[in-house]
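Fold Annotation — chain and its backbone
Next Lines — sequence and tokenised fold

***
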Amino acid sequence: MVQSIRRPGLDDEQLLLAVANTAHGQEDELADAASVQAWWRGLGASATGPDAGPEADDSVAMLRSLRVLIRGLALRNNGIEPDLSAVAGLEALTLRLDVADVLTLRAGQPGGLARDIAAATVAALLRATARPDWPRVKACRGDDCRWVFVDGSRNCSRRWCAMANCGNRAKMATFRSRHRTTG
């Protein structure tokens, strides 16, 4: 059940950021079912028994597709039209409406922790995109970064995850390019 895996205090945006930011550089926290379980525990959440088999592999692949989708939508919020052709396998995630405590979506069939997290993430994505502050969820414009963050600036103009890193690199590249053409 999704409700039993949700960490208290992990709101929709936090869950979306957690899923979207599971890969940076060479490290992928959604590489396989065991790494998904370790990542989920690292968030302070409870995890069920070990997932194994083809169902778990399919569920982990869905979770990776959701990561691509969330990053793509966050890039769109930052003025970049993403290529979402790599998003695949999500149609296999069946969801059912659950009205027990709070109206939400749950995995329609058992499939382990990764499938439950994917269902919770889809529900969080649907709720988050319906809110007026959704455009503040952005992905870094740095080509080698794409870290997803919430833009807390007053005029919603933040473009990079951190000005000290990605923003500085982008500004220096612009500066060098401008001086090469004038020199």
